[in-house]
Specification:
The protein is an alpha+beta fold and 258 residues long. It has two domains: 108 residues, Probable inorganic polyphosphate/atp-NAD kinase, domain 1 (Rossmann fold), CATH 3.40.50; 133 residues, Sandwich (Tumour Suppressor Smad4). It contains five helices and 17 strands. The longest helix is centred in the first third of the chain and has 13 residues. It is elongated, with a radius of gyration of 20 Å. The two termini are 32 Å apart.
Length: 258
Amino acid sequence: MNAKSDKKLAFVASTNPQAEAARAALHARYDGVSLDEADIIVALGGDGLMLTTLHKVMDQGKPIFGMHHGSVGFLMNRYDEDNLRDRLADAKLSLLRPLEMTAKDSDGKEHKALAINEVSLLRMTAQAAKLSITIDGTQRMAELVCDGALVSTPAGSTAYNLSAHGPILPIDAQLLALTPISAFRPRRWRGALLQQTAEVIITTNEADKRPVSAVADHSEFRNVVEVRIKQSKKHEMLLLFDGDQSLDERILTEQFSI
């Protein structure tokens, strides 16, 4: 990134007491400033904090450098209080674009949200969901009987998508992953890789009997009947990773882990 030594740093932390203590120490050591004044934001916690911070500063052009101080940290760098400015100067920059979700509920109301990781549809009761899937105006599956389905960005492909046995995508891949969650019929369907320009429409069959919720990262809407998903063209976020542990490298390593 070639960050200058005079870059102003803001530090944010999860509610974990250890992370908050680390934030206070780093703020004092590196002359921390407020989020509004900062050129670079250093986030201390896990991936949950990173997602919250990314949503908070979206479109502000401020890179975020995460350091792991939580339970899950795939998007975080190792924690080290020393030589932080040198690490920032050598860090690799990754640009992320979120998914835009528009969900219509059973009352006809529309809900909009952005998802950095994925948009997921989930059954709300003991009854399996019945979903139909349309890609760019063409219905590709009339009925998927399942616990749900999700559309993932490359950045989110190692999160819920991976747990649902979806493919891992390189961060710069111009693709989205469409992955079923516990598919019952067709049982052998494992999902699809889509161009990042694709618009996905998922509608619920028998919505009254088989209610479904839609979740975009931290935003949930219940009793949805139709969900439209596409990659945003106007929103973007910037992430920084240590030069020897870029997000590309982490994703590649994950594919060979046992």
